[in-house]
Amino acid sequence: MTPGSARTISSAAAAGQVSTVDLGDYQSIDLGDLEAILVPRYIQDVPPVDGWKFPFDFYLDAATASSALQVMGIRSGGRDGGFEEQTYEVTAFTPTDYNQDIVWVDGFFVRWPQNLQKNLL
Known about the structure:
Elements: H1 5-14, E1 20-22, H2 31-38, E2 57-60, E3 72-76, E4 87-89, E5 91-93, E6 102-105, E7 108-113
Parallel strand pairs: 5-7
Antiparallel strand pairs: 1-4, 2-3, 3-6, 6-7
């Protein structure tokens, strides 16, 4: 990845320039291989399951991380544990829709629970 490209992708997503993310563009990696790369140098441990006790789905292209545009990602299948799709529209969802996938790639959320709290000040 070129210097600043993750920041560029994140900024583009925030600005609405990236409308979809296809996880098929990312290299899948199993938990053991991910731990071998990250623990203990970058993180103490890698959580194997989400809050619903289902396995996370991990993506990391360690071989070409310095030049690839799609480097890393993680997703949770939500309460039902199933993944909705491979290509996601960049958008929030109602936080009480517990079966929605939560998807994070390359420094930004692709699918996330929307904050419905209003500023009461």
